[in-house]
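Notes continue from the previous slide.

Worked example: a multi-chain complex. Inputs as given:
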Amino acid sequence: MTSFKQLELIDPLLRAVARENYQEPTPIQAQSIPLLLAGRDILGCAQTGTGKTAAFALPMLQMLTQGNAVRGKPAIRALILSPTRELAAQIDESFHAYGRFLNLRHLVIFGGVKQHAQVAAIRQGVHILVATPGRLLDLVGQGYVHLDQVQFFVLDEADRMLDMGFIHDIRRVLKLLPSERQNLLFSATLPPDITRLAGSFLDNPARVEVSPPSSTVEQIEQRLMFVDRLDKHELLIELLSRPGMSRVLVFTRTKHGANRLVKRLTRAKIPAVAIHGNKSQSARRKALAGFHSGEIPILVATDLASRGIDVENISHVVNFELPHEPEVYIHRIGRTGRAGLSGVAISFCDATESADLRSIERLIGDEIPVDADHVWHSREAATTAHAPALSSREPPSRDRKKAGRPQPKTRPCPRANPSAGAGRQSVVPVRDPGRKPAGSRRRRRRVFRNPSST
Ligand code: AMP
């Protein structure tokens, strides 16, 4: 097993990953870091949840520090383009975490907020800029952002970028970059338009392909519970009283929701804590320590706060709300069933979440078996989820709404050779024409029939 040290990362980066509690590089990190440090371009087929951010952020930080970036007034040396503001913010947070012992400045810019603070930060000088395409081009047009010194360019989630109609923006950005630079393109799928785009700006790229965290889809028992939104608290309380729910990680979409849930559980005399962005570092550490030791069996987390939670033996993951981004589902459920242990992921779905459910099932290529054996089962939610086609095309998230994003037509890179070991893949058959997406196959759901094993 490769260690971060064997990847020849410099000491401040080794300290930063240790601080994040990363024990060893993920497969994509082990593959990409040496290639990037050697100056190669990369075409990466990998989803969120595989550790791909560190795979590019760590070598970039190292090369920027060792190069001349830190001398003189900071100029933008690294540009990371991301399709959504949420993802952009996450990437920027990662740069903050991994670069905490270095002297490099990073900034995230995205639309939908006033530009004043972003412009002020750019004026101070920035080495690493994470941006969504629209706001980036806006600020370039106004003369605030200059991209003529960019040495590293990352196009993240390229398939989503194209789905969201950003192809022209991407081409405009590419024209603004100097020709001497190192390029990376990451995408969960590699349909022909992505390979064409990759061919237009990557220079003899190394291909890196990695599946979602190895413990996902196959090893984890997944269940779906249809429930009305207002009954979710009660359903969770009932679930938590079942045997075997020893260490449960519950995901909510918002900090507020996490707080409300912990209050309700506490009233029901169920020990639970929340971790989210509004909690101080020491409160987070304390909550994690309690969860780790088993003193507190229920941890309620938002997606951002859950980054870096590395607790073994999580018996159950509960999706109190479904995530808008289907990849996040895979990332969440991968928290259970680690190291070959069995794990259970239970997802609550109310009538407003059927589009999210469809996106998830399309991504995992299967239907999640329904567990209707509980008093809170909602027929309305179940019927909405069964409704064919049209509503599944309604884009759930704000960004998709804006861009009218169509459903992805391709599946994630499948594991071409499962015996090759976790996370390693070969060729990428992007689409299996004989197989319809899960959404169009839906007639009758499989029903989960053994609640006693909960
Ligand atoms: P990403 O795919 O970059 O969004 O990362 C997914 C999650 O994995 C994030 O929560 C990271 O903090 C976490 N992560 C990244 N690299 C490692 C590692 N080597 N060991 C453990 N967790 C990691």
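Summary box: The pocket of adenosine monophosphate is lined by residues 22, 25-26, 29, 48-54, 307-308, 310 (CB under 6 Å). Confidence is low (pLDDT under 50) at residues 389-443, 450-454.
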